Amino acid sequence: MIQYLPPAAQRVRLTIRNWNPRYVFADQRAVALIEVKIGRHTGDGRGTGWVELPAGATAYDSGWTDVPASFRGAEIVLQYRWEGRDVVRCLGTGWTDGVRDPFPPLFSWFEVEVPTSTPVVAVFGSSTAAGVGAERPLIDSWFGLWAREHGVVPMFVAHSGDKALAWSSVSNRKWSLYGDEAVPVDAVLYAMGSNDWAERVSLAVLQHRVETTIGGIRVRTDAPIFGTTITPRRKRPPNEQTRIAYNEWLQESGLFAGVIDLAAAVSLPDGTLDPAVDHDGTHVNPRGHARLAAAVPPSVMHAVASRRCRQGRRRLCPHPR
């Protein structure tokens, strides 16, 4: 698995679980991790400057590890050997036995320690936010591309196939999987809802699901939340007008600090999906992810800067007029 480390990264902490957060709330069978290490990525899953991490088993926690200077502002690669059964596979950019694998075994993520001057933005979404259709899932998703360009630490609360409905339980089990105690973010990009719409629910049901999940986010942060419009699909479903009405409703809902029009970035003038960015009829290809990243307006970083300035973290404060 590979990931990009921001230039300001000081330490990292690795977690590996044998679960798929879309479906389950506990590990499958315990999996032994015989060899765990991270290095600077040199291409195709290979690396250099390896840092050995402790061996262990799922649920695996490496503890905090210092980041070598050569890793900062670069891609890092995680390598591990494992032994076990009933191993869950999850979307990611990985290699298994040297062969490119879009669904590598186990679910792993890095926490990154950065100075308080470094902005952190989260995306709450599903497959497109996670990078399905990108050259490299997650790292080259539209959100990953945008975060790198703006020096932002990206927090992915996103998984292929997920729905707002799955986050509406009062038990909050899904939230606990991603860490209820995560460091407060400076902004949230709300990119959920496409799979709810694909269920052919009514506009009222779709709106209710979104309002409910916005409430769940608000319990955890007072950061500005930006909505995103639902992108079209190659084959227009019977409830295409629901998507159009939902995208219009976002602007007037009062739920968001602003709305990012992702749909317009990948649509033809008639509102249909542009064939030039069509990956599989549902998701966009690398060109499409680049367009989506470019569609995020400067107002998002302006909101991040204003929030950080109010909190006394002045690195991104707007210059006085």
Walkthrough of the structure:
It is built from 9 helices and 15 strands. The chain is α/β, with parallel strands linked by helices and 321 residues long. The protein is 25% helix and 27% strand. Helix 2 (142-149) packs across helix 8 (286-295).
List descriptors.
alpha/beta, 25% helix, 27% strand, five-stranded antiparallel sheet, 9 helices, single chain, five-stranded parallel sheet, 321 residues, disordered C terminus
The SS-based structural class is: alpha/beta
**Helix content estimate:** 25-40%
- Give a quick account of the main beta sheet: strands, pairing sense, barrel closure: 5 strands, antiparallel
User: Can you tell me the overall shape?
Assistant: globular
Average of the residue pLDDT scores: 90
Low-confidence stretches: 314-321
Number of helices: 9
CA radius of gyration: 20 Å
Order of helices and strands: EEEEEEEEEEEHHEHEHHEHEHHH
Total strands: 15
Distance between the termini: 45 Å
**Beta-strand percentage range:** 25-35%
